[in-house]
Here is the input.
Amino acid sequence: MNEHSNIVPLRQPDEIDDPLTNILRSGARQLLAQAVEMEAEAFLAAMKGLKRPDGRDRLVRHGHGPVRTIQTGIGAVEVARVKIRDRAVTSDGERIRFTSAILPLWARRTKSLDALLPVLYLRGISTGDFQEALAALLGKDAPNLSPGVVSRLTTEWQLEYERWQKRDLSARRYVYVWADGVFLQARMEDHSECMLVLIGATPEGKKELIGFQVGVRESTQSWHELLVEAKTRGLKIAPEIAVGDGALGFWKALDEVFPATRHQRCWVHKTANILNKVAVSVQASMKKDLREVYLASNRASAEVAIDVFAEKYGAKYDKAVECLTKDRDAMLAFYEFPAEHWDHLRTANPIESVFATVRHRTVRTKGSLSSTTAKLMVFKLLCAASKTWRRLKGTNQLPKVIAGVRFENGIEVIQVPENHAA
Here is the structure.
């Protein structure tokens, strides 16, 4: 019997009345339920040929599991898992089990929401504030985002990081690599810890995260350990060229582990270093002249632009000129590769864009960031960012690099034996 009441619920001051979001959540529940049902039906259809001795189907539906709440980007969505029963047991006691790819057995949040947590943390939101920060998006009483849950997530990320560190690289080949590091002052410790990152480009033009670890400063020893670890796990073929900033530790370690790999200094870092040596009033024109160097159509034109730069600024700004000319060869190494790849090889920006977030977090927390938590958060952030890294242009050029074709100003000029390729 229906009961009628004259009590009218009042909307709380912090409650958001959003009919559109309510409609979206309702539709999401229906679509998710339909998808789960269709997945179960497809599984049963694929197993239709399995029969019991009496001719009946071996696999049948067996109701639903308890209703559970999944946190999604539009809030909580309730769904029940479809259960399938195996009515026959094999001689070894094994049963066929149905596992939903859409709705994993213990899932409480979507993967995209898990990927959002490191971003929030590195943007300055403490783990205890996640629930409050996401209340407007997920609903006032959004579960599964308490500090305890985030702490357990960190433990899971640690295990994921350890598995990732042990993965086999023997089947991988990277023609180009980018290296960079960022310093963190974690909990006011006596020394600065540096997060070292190594990214590589496969012959198919896809950029991947090769190595990541925390070292003591950007020292030769720290970089050496990272490179040796990658080599030990199967990365035997030296990359064609490495791109990085002026950290001497990396370049010395690279020469020790992969001596055949050529050096390319990052133009973003070099430009900043040069401009820091001159007055602000000169920086705009000097920056324009530097662009004439690294945007030149070929190496010969770039060499001429460097000479013009030295003649123009040498008298008053000799330190800025020296900063450019002392690394002349390393700044122009990218011209020896296909022209389609020059945009990629001039800078270590794929790493810098992620580290900008880390630096923001370090400033906001004023040293309160745990080094272990920071490492795992940055690792997860790099894994998420790697899916959006821009593929190399002109990927059809990559096999030529591997085969030993030399390039001059981005044009193929000399064919050399494969085992002599630089």
